[in-house]
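Re: the multi-chain job from yesterday

Posting the exact lines I submitted so nobody has to dig through the queue logs.
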Amino acid sequence: MNERPDEPLDQWVRQSLDGLSDTLPPGSTFRGERLWEQMSPQLATPAPTTRWQPKRAWWAAAACGMAVMLLGWIWQRQAMPDSVTVTLRSQPATTKTSPVHRNDRKRQTKRTDDVTARPGAPRHPALPHASVTKPATLPDDVVSVPLEPIASVNQGPTPPIESAGAQPAPPTRPTTGPKRQFRVAHINELMAEDEARPAPDRAERFVRLGTNLNALPDSDTPPPAITLSLTTKSIQ
Amino acid sequence: MSQQLVEQCQLGNAFAQKRLFDQYANRLFRVSVRYVRHEPDAEEVLMNAFLKAFRAIGDFTYRDEAGLEAWLRRIVINEALQKLRANQSLPLFKTDELTDFQPDPEPLPDTGLDAERIYALICDLPPGYRTVFNLYAIEGYTHREIAAQLRISENTSKSQLSKARALLQSWLITNGYERKTRRTS
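And the result, structure tokens for all chains:
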């Protein structure tokens, strides 16, 4: 309320009303006792002995609640990565493609094992369009393609084969042993693998895409098969 | 005396509360009637105001009796304005009144009118005029504060105040107010 020049009428009215006694207006039906009787039950809660400021209590409660929520959120964030990691590790490798660096070592190891594990195994003949015999047990990371053997003699080990242009076939998984995986590799990596592999193994990289031999008429010569080279190098 | 009453009320003493109520009930009832006009509404306003006052008296710092009365009066006025809003009596500013009345430029009060009559004339003012006149002329609020309380513009508050004064002057003249110039003539 600011100080301002007072109007005469306002001042006169204020002075007149200040002179009013504490009696009630004439004709009024107001009774203080009746009103107190209505009020007293609602005054049952005693007044606080100390000057407690409820606003501060509300702010303190709100701050505590926020702190609890923040701590719970932080704890949940810390716990989440562990559970997610465990979940990822426990999942089986169902993808057809896998990182190169992981399977590259696998394949090299398997190929080495395949070559060295069977020292007495016959080698495949150096045929220009030699086909790959289907091994009795396929390696784990080989895409199983429905193949028919051309030479029934050769039952040697067959390294894992990559079919770049082969038709996708449903992968067959061995009942026992590790799971197969496909890998997507750069051509340079394949060339490096070729160089690292012994020469006789090169002929085994071809995938025979041929017709079903059972439907062919009996003939001494094997039917021509469609072969697809996986590398740009000429076959020796 | 009032300080002890306030201290006892802060401790929750029911007898002190009753005494404080009896000391200010009639005076604050008049204040309530000046705003809401009707006595049943004024009783409700007074009861709500005292309940709020007793519950909030713990935060009140007693300085003098005038300060205590001013504190109670503000609570009553706020409750009265809430009651007017609840009854949808605010804002109700009639602009079609006093179309042909020109207020006296130099009003001079006369002692012929008693305070009760002036009080009754104020209560007879229209709700909008009465509220603004009470807040400005009697309680001492500024137009800005009145505009914020009643959610109107300052210009509206000023125009309502001038119209309330003009109407009150006309009634004062009608009810026995005589200018000194008229007496001499």
